Structure to design on (387 residues):
């Protein structure tokens, strides 16, 4: 069976150029980047080259890049690093109802540590209204944290407007940019972010590497203690091979992003048109919002999303649903529920996320597979009827 991968928002296959950068460091730079001998300094050079490559893509100073193990650690460092030692008895953080668990569960822990949290709602397109964020401000608001693009729907938030609101109120602004990185242009001199999280494996690197942009002058309390690595913000010997891979991925993104985005937008349009033409009673979630060019989230009335994922997997296609298994029960996506979808429609939704390995032929084969699976599953459903 020839398989086709349509789950790039979960993890994207390692690009050949990135793999070469990764293995070159494993092969040629075995030293510890903190060592002063020759091999250590070679490793240090590779680490700093990667930092410069990422900074060039993000339009920031290389000294503002802190390497981490991925997006989750970057989000945790940003939120805990700001709020755990702020000199306010009950500091306030504003975020949205559709954030990734890396932010939402960090917020839940901060609430247990006496931080006040406001979860701003979103509209039917999955967008937060900047005026709602302004209305949520209090004199104790220290930080606003909003994702750049949603991992399930691809909806792109109005981060520049939110940054202006944050800074006018004297608050800092953190952006979870894990899904935006590598898919749309991201410039630190335009987003207004004080902190910006990225992850490598969404952009074609090995898993286990990410970074946090920390604007010059922003003070963070570290979460991991030990040596003075990463400007004193992240102790532990740096993962130089993975950092080099992330640096090479950033350079590759800088070279190819406009053409790659246009190609993926065309393929996504082809996929959406084909599915809507071949499958009745389906629709695109967040279609009214500006979206990442590679992401579509489609509901199929009368079908359980998990059953559709399994059916497509058996046909050779990897896709995902936004549902989460909790205590043996499948819970509908918190993102789609926050957008106003019913639990039934949220459970019936699938995410298709495209990447550099996808082709028009794969899209056409996926359309046929979706149509076949939808018809089969609806025939088996005791409750579905054509409308």
């Amino acid at each position: 069976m020839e398989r086709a991968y349509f789950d790039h928002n979960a993890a994207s296959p390692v690009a050949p150029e990135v793999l070469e950068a990764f293995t070159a460091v494993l092969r040629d730079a075995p030293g510890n980047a903190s060592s002063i001998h020759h091999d250590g300094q070679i490793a240090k050079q590779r680490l700093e080259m990667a930092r410069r490559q990422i900074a060039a893509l993000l339009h920031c100073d290389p000294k503002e890049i802190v390497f981490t193990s991925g997006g989750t650690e970057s989000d945790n460092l940003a939120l805990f690093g700001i709020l755990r030692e702020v000199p306010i008895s009950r500091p306030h953080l504003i975020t949205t109802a559709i954030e990734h668990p890396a932010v939402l569960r960090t917020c839940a822990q901060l609430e247990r540590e006496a931080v006040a949290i406001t979860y701003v709602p979103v509209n039917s397109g999955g967008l937060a209204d900047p005026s709602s964020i302004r209305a949520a401000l209090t004199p104790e608001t220290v930080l606003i944290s909003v994702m750049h693009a949603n991992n399930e729907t691809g909806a792109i938030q109005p981060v520049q407007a939110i940054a202006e609101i944050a800074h006018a109120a004297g608050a800092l602004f953190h952006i979870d940019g894990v899904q935006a990185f590598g898919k749309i242009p991201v410039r630190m001199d335009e987003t207004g972010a004080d902190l910006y999280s990225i992850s490598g494996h969404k952009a074609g690197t090995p898993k286990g590497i990410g970074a946090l942009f920390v604007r010059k002058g922003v003070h963070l309390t570290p979460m991991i203690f030990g040596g003075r690595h990463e400007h004193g913000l992240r102790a532990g010997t740096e993962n130089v091979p993975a950092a080099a891979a992330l640096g090479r991925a950033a350079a590759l993104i800088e070279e190819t992003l406009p053409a790659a985005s246009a190609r993926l937008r065309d393929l996504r349009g082809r996929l959406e048109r084909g599915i809507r033409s071949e499958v009745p009673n389906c629709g695109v979630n967040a279609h009214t919002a500006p979206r990442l060019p590679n992401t579509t989230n489609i509901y199929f009335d009368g079908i359980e999303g998990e059953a559709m994922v399994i059916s497509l997997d058996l046909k050779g296609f990897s896709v995902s649903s936004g549902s989460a298994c909790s205590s043996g029960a499948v819970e509908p996506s918190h993102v789609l529920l926050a957008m106003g979808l019913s639990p039934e429609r949220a459970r019936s939704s699938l995410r298709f996320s495209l990447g550099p390995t996808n082709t028009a032929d794969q899209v056409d084969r996926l359309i046929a597979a979706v149509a076949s699976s939808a018809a089969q599953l609806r025939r088996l459903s005791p409750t579905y009827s054509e409308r």
About this structure: The chain is about 40% helix and 15% strand. The two ends are 35 Å apart (CA to CA). The longest helix spans residues 240-278. The chain has a mean pLDDT of 95.
